[in-house]
Amino acid sequence: MTNHEIAVNIPQNLDPVYSNMIQIAYKEDEFTFVFLHQIPGVNQARAKAIVSITPTHAKNFLAVLGRTVQDFESKFGPIQPPSEKPQVDNVTTIRGYS
Question: So where are the chain's domains?
């Protein structure tokens, strides 16, 4: 293993989670991501996972996600947002929670 590789142990009972909506909250020392599944045709969403990370990790996550999306688009073509409604409704930012 190189210095940049780590062994990742994924428990067999860890289930994958599907999310089609996210809420992001932050305060001075952390970012919290609430991954939601919005139920089609109903004005409801169910929280599926909550992940909190440090601001430094959030910045690193942003950079890694950007590179990953660029890699995806170079292999599969540009990601096009759905034409029926803008995706801005799928992210909610909650500022200054405690």
Answer: 18-54+91-95
